[in-house]
Amino acid sequence: MVGYIWAFLIGIGIIYSLISGNISVINESILTNANEALDLIFNLLPIIVLWTGILKIAENSGLLAKFANLLNPILCKLFPDVPKNNKALGYISSNIAANMLGLGSAATPAGLKAMNELQKINPQKDTASPPMITFLILNTAGVTIIPTTILALRVAYKSSSPSEIILPAIIATTISSIAGLTLDYFIRRRNKKWK
Amino acid sequence: MEIISKIILPIFIIIIVFYGVKKKINVYDTFLEGAKEGLITTFNIFPAVIAMIFAINIFLDSNVLTFFIKLLHPLIGNISLPLEIIPMAILRPISGTASLAIMNEIFMNFGPDSFIGRLASVLQGCTDTTIYVIALYFGSIKITKIRHALWGGLFADLCGIIAAIILTNLFF
């Protein structure tokens, strides 16, 4: 999927600039692109390293687990089909907690384990179960409290107030999560009626 | 409102560090351990960043976008949205690196404190790579019939994008 889009962007860009006689711009762009990528990585590096260091403390001290526990009661309500002491709920809450703090690398393993546990209680192994869909909608709505990469780039480009976007981003992400979950709720209810 | 945005980060850090000290873990060594992991992660994403910056820049520098927008003009009319945000909104659910590359481009051309710079920041922060996550998570347990997971996720993203546009107008 990403491969096709990547090829599409390059293909359409080069073909269009050949047609429009703009090819010297593209030539220059190709030669300078890699440097720009290196600048981007160097801009991101310091804050990502700092934040993963801080979050490691949260992880090893058990704060992340405690934070995940706080989310548990809310999650029980969102996943009525999952038994209350099922392992999946624990993994789901660690996944969401890690995502919220911008700890993507810790979120993915927990998310995959959650899917694994949900698959164990899934009656149709090739079809997504309702809890899986709810989990993915919640996960992809991307509830992030600390958007580290964005902050890093804003600092690098000398924003006068790098963190001013945190609150609007949190509100926007909350709105998209609620919208996704509401849609999911109504689809689930409609499907139940049909049965 | 602005003060809330500004105190979130310091509050998190003081809570995390204080809790670590209270639980008697070696906060300094733990920090170094995590920072090292972050260093490795960042270098691991470097090839993807090069790949995406390369493709996105060829696409943007060719001006083909203005051509597309002209084609679409009769359909969408005069929406007062900066052009550069459209490919970002389209690519955001597919690849986090691609939208990051566009955000970088926007910051470079317009600055992070411009309207489009702020909009790009809120947009990047409020949604996730829906299509990628769905492919990865369902692929890992071999589920082929994903029912409404994809368009449910994309619907949430769309709401996020609309919310981002409205909130950026309200806040700044």
Can you tell me about this structure?
The complex is a heterodimer of chains A (195) and B (172). With 195 residues, chain A is mainly α. Chain A contains 8 helices and no strands. Chain A has a domain at 60-195. Chain A has helices at 2-19, 23-60, 63-78, 87-100, 104-120, 130-140, 148-156, 166-194. Chain A starts with a helix and ends with a helix. The relative contact order of chain A is 0.08. Chain B has helices spanning 2-22, 27-61, 64-76, 85-91, 96-110, 115-126, 130-140, 149-171. Chain B is mostly helical and 172 residues long. Chain B is built from 8 helices and no strands. Chain B has one domain. At the A-B interface, helix 1, helix 2, helix 5, helix 6 and helix 7 of A face helix 1, helix 2, helix 5, helix 6 and helix 7 of B.
How are the elements arranged and paired?
The complex is a heterodimer of chains A (195) and B (172).
Chain A: H1 2-19, H2 23-60, H3 63-78, H4 87-100, H5 104-120, H6 130-140, H7 148-156, H8 166-194
Helix pairs in contact in A: 2-7, 3-4, 4-5, 6-8
Chain B: H1 2-22, H2 27-61, H3 64-76, H4 85-91, H5 96-110, H6 115-126, H7 130-140, H8 149-171
Helix pairs in contact in B: 2-5, 4-5, 5-6, 6-8
